[in-house]
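Explain this record to help learners:
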Amino acid sequence: MSNISLLIGLGNPGKEYAQTRHNAGFWFIEQLADQYNIQLKADPKFHAYSGRGTIEGHDVRLLLPTTFMNRSGQSVVPFAKFYQIQPESILIAHDELDMNPGIIRLKTGGGHGGHNGLKDIVPHIGPNFHRLRIGIGHPGHKDQVSGHVLGKAPSSEQTLMDDAIYHAKSRIKLLLDGEVQQAMNQINAHKP
């Protein structure tokens, strides 16, 4: 089991998307960067903001693709290949429609589950990376999904999502120490 050395957040670039539900993965990485004083700098070669630093004694890289969500692979794949980071050493944080706000789940492997960002990554690196799925809720009908994910959550839902992210962040040491099952048990036990 390789230790996680690359943490990626999925989202859309630009101020107009910063507070939208689809950017939940960005929020997780940005908060880690703030907490551990890791500067995220523009990295045009990989169409991203990236940074390297120490989290709980581990040397890690952080990545926020600046491609749009459905082109996330154009950033993630070359970055992982360039730094020779295996899928088993990658954590991707992303929004999850099929879970309510406040629910957060860590899992390893699986398909893309219809997520446009993962759809652009899985065919190139395979499914064996870790995912931090941040619940944003489903609007109830597939025709409303685009407006929902690209919309801003009401403050009651935002608070639930922020609490879930904080909960996962507080388990980052377990995850980086390679205690993935224990991290999974604790993160997945979070109740909003």
The chain has one domain: 6-98+118-188. The beta strands are 6-9, 41-43, 48-55, 58-65, 90-96, 104-108, 130-135. The mean pLDDT is 95.
